[in-house]
Queue: 2 jobs
Job 1
Amino acid sequence: MQETGAYGERLRRTFKVARAPSLVAKTLKNARIAITEIRCDKANTGLSEPIAVEDAFLMTVQLRDVPAHDMFLDGKQIKTAFLPVGTTSFYDLRSSPVANSISAFNHISFYVPRAALTAITDKEGIPSVDAFNHNPGVGVQDPVMHNLVRAILPAFRSPGLANQLFVDHLTVAATAHAVRYHACAFRQTATRRKTLSYGEVSRAQEKLSEHLDGDLRLEELSDECGMSPLDFASAFEETVGGSVHAWRRDLRIERAKRLLVRGYEAREVAALLGYEQVSDFVGDFIRKVGTDPRSVH
């Protein structure tokens, strides 16, 4: 099959590596999704070659930690961060992505042209989408994508044993999952977004619940949505009906209730939930519950 998209040999030339094995899913009518493994064990290999502009996307899952890299979209440098193994990034090929490879890297890339994206949304009954509004320089943590890629890896390690049905199934499953949980209806422009998607809210709430002690910066939440902290805070409140701070505070109180019932003292609960002063915890608890936590048994 002649390669006409950003996969296989084209991606090999883009990243200037020795080889780039690829697989092509053939299950979608009039569309294809291709998977390519790119591996470079050298650091500081410089800028990637430009990828031809087209109405398509690359979904990339990291197979090793990438401590440092630079990223440019439409010629402008964007924010980047450490990419731990398993990080998924979405690249809009209408935006001419170019990477500066500072660290060595190894990743799997799914090439998803517009026809395949449309076929997936039609097949899965998902509303039409136009973009993945995440900052690819930061990426998102998605264990489902990571595990699907790990399942596909044996097809690259032992090509002779690769079953086409297996490849088709996992490729379409990964793409459908990404579309359902990470895509959005409109490509992000300079216009401020006013709401968050269901997936964005769920991931933000999960992160907040994991950091009830307050050890989480708003910027960490906003980066995953490709938004400024101010825009994210406004969109969260519009979508959820309350501020990020209020949502975390209420969750802390619910967690506090369970700890108090289990026999923890108020001062112990305050410390576990990150309150600097017991009095701050007592005040929050009384305002929310109407009862002094020191009287809960």
Note: The two ends are 70 Å apart (CA to CA).
Job 2
Amino acid sequence: MDGPSLQELIQAEGVTLSGGVPTIWTMYLAHLERSGEDSGTLQRLVIGGSAVPRAMAETFQTTYGVAVCQLWGMTETSPLGVVATPTPKLAERGQHATNDTIWTRQGRLQFGIELKVVDEQGRELPCDGVSSGSLKVRGPWTVERYYRSEASALDADGWFDTGDIATLDADGFMHITDRSKDVIKSGGEWVSSIDIENVAVACPGVKVAAVVGVFHPKWEERPLLVIEPHSDAEVTVEKILAHLEPNIVKWWMPDAVIFDAVPLTATGKIDKKVLRERYRNHLVENQPSVVNQ
């Protein structure tokens, strides 16, 4: 499935509502931009599986009039966890504030699901939209144990560890900053690979951006950015770094930028396991650099 195929299907069938992971819609937007076509009958998109770049949601809404709804869930939550829909309280702050929230959060609390974020010692963190930690869920239809397992998947208080790193804000909106297995810890500080990716993919000409933590002899881990540009785009490291610099903190800037094809899983998600293995010694064997593969 690629951008032209999606467009052909949407136009032929008069599709008004669709869903998929962000990678699919990146290809679709690229096709619309190259071809000059519009989105036809398409009115709404539901996007999940990984964090939606703000630039993607904003482009769909402002350029094509297509509303994007983010959501988050997992098999263990049967499957819905949160949905990014506005509340009356949020709407009172105006359209700009509403868009800013629903374009940058995975969603808000739903009936039957409790959420909390805890630090490394298991202490609950405040709902301030800033404090990030391990995301835990609890509810009557949340998993209790896995098939053929005798041990419960829950802690003593009935909470399930999702494996995500997230924040919660005062309005109950959740923002995933990373998967716990993907989080980069550099010199004792957390670096959000997802936040860097979402900024990088908004750079013109970038098709897919992936960030992984690789070994660094001083800082233990540092971020490495892999960029897959569109086939007809001219993307340079100078453009990438200039785009990143005003949008992320200085110590999140990647130590290496590599132009290469980004591997995807069968469900269209970035396969970071492959990237970590491929580049695990890159910073040891090379000076901080830009590499074209």
Note: Residues 22-35 form the longest helix (14 residues).
